[in-house]
Design brief:
By secondary structure, this protein is an alpha/beta fold. 42% of the residues lie in helices and 16% in strands. It has helices at 17-31, 46-53, 68-82, 97-105, 125-141, 150-157, 182-186, 208-217, 233-242, 258-263, 278-285, 296-301, 316-328, 334-344, 349-360; strands at 5-10, 35-40, 58-61, 86-91, 110-115, 144-147, 165-167, 194-198, 223-227, 248-251, 266-269, 289-292. The strands form two sheets. Strands 3-2-1-4-5-6-7 form a seven-stranded parallel beta sheet, sandwiched between helices. The chain has a five-stranded parallel beta sheet with strand order 10-9-8-11-12, sandwiched between helices.
């Protein structure tokens, strides 16, 4: 019999960083006989139902969009039936204040607001206004506010200071050995210089900067692998074609990601904004040279030895200089790579699970 009952509340179950973190917590909870239910604030597909039913006790669908009253009634029913010790809400907006407020009314003792990303950059004015109005509700209702990085805490709460705040970075996965030779599959010569990136094809990830940089340094014998999926894939392919970049390879997510890391010489991560760039930590753990933009979240995830190798997220000329330097002399990165490997160890699954578990047990 479980000595702790936790309800996880999440915006939706479509694949992403928040969902990966939730799965990590659910699997760890199973190992320790902590009973967890999941409540999605968006509709659940049949495939998601099947996937999450294997790692959670109960899965609830409780949509909130355009019907806050109905959500309140249904969510309160779930709380009363569940008799939870902890409600842990995972979102990137202050809308989480609503389930937290209802949880406080239901006398759930531990109520965690967990922010996984910076405040929305592309929200409408109306959504931004509603989000800002709900922030005091989070402050009033949560017993603990967790942010995935300092940057997330600053953008979500500005200059607010509270003893409720804590930073818990997402954990880096233990990456298994590669299962295939990606260079051979893509027809890339073994002696070619290869740039790589793995991220969702979206505005935030800024892969256009990589294409502009490749075009600038002009060595068409080099290759680039862009791994991911997302709404800007077609636009990026058109951009590569317009720039006559024949050696840019668009591929799907790699599992394990070591297939990609083994195939590239430099991992380029030019994001405009991030919550916490876990892939950057994973690249360092695999001894890959990393060239990332100098946004605050990236700097938190990078070993200090890499900080002088960062660049403004719009400066493709500076990125080009760094890529060319890495191509000319990889030996300069040997001490940096070793320092980065040690740095990445602090983001282990063991350390992160210990911090979350302590919050749940109120210790």
């Amino acid at each position: 019999m479980s000595d702790l009952r936790v309800l996880h509340v999440i915006g939706g179950l479509s694949p992403g960083g928040i969902q990966s973190f939730l799965k990590f917590l659910l699997k760890k909870s199973l190992d320790e006989n902590i009973e967890c239910d999941v409540c999605s604030m968006s509709p659940i597909s049949g495939a998601q139902q099947l996937e999450y039913s294997k790692i959670s006790a109960n899965l609830f669908e409780c949509p909130i969009r355009n019907n806050y009253i109905r959500f309140g009634i249904e969510f309160t029913r779930i709380l009363r039936a569940g008799n939870y010790d902890v409600v842990h809400v995972h979102r990137s907006s202050h809308v989480m204040g609503i389930p937290l407020f209802l949880s406080k009314r239901a006398k759930v003792p531990i109520r965690i607001a967990h922010y996984q990303n910076v405040a929305g950059r592309s929200q409408s004015l109306v959504r931004k206004s509603i989000n800002l109005l709900l922030r005091p509700l989070v402050m009033h209702s949560a017993t603990q506010i967790v942010c995935v990085s300092q940057a997330v805490c600053k953008t979500q709460f500005s200059r607010l200071i509270s003893d409720k705040f804590t930073i818990i970075n997402n954990p880096a996965r233990e990456i298994p050995a590669k299962t295939s030779n990606l260079r051979a599959q893509l027809g890339i010569p073994s002696n070619a210089f290869v740039i790589g990136n793995a991220a969702r094809f979206s505005e935030a990830k800024n892969q256009e900067l990589i294409l502009n940089s490749i075009c600038l340094f002009g060595d068409r014998s080099d290759h680039c692998i862009l791994a991911g999926e997302g709404p800007r894939l077609t636009e990026l392919k058109r951009g590569a074609s317009r720039l006559a970049l024949m050696n840019v390879h668009f591929i799907t997510w790699q599992d394990p990601i070591s297939n990609l890391f083994d195939a590239i010489d430099v991992f380029v991560f030019p994001s405009l904004w991030e919550g916490f760039p876990l892939t950057l930590v994973e690249a360092q753990s695999q001894r890959v040279v990393c060239l990332a933009s100098n946004i605050e979240s990236n700097l938190e995830a990078l070993s200090p030895s890499y900080h002088k190798w960062t660049y403004p997220p719009g400066d493709y000329e500076r990125l080009t200089e760094l890529i060319m330097s890495a191509k000319r002399d990889r030996s300069q990165f040997v001490p940096i790579i070793e320092e980065a490997l040690t740095f990445s160890e602090q983001f282990s699954e063991r350390n992160v699970w210990s911090k979350v578990r302590s919050l749940w047990y109120g210790s």
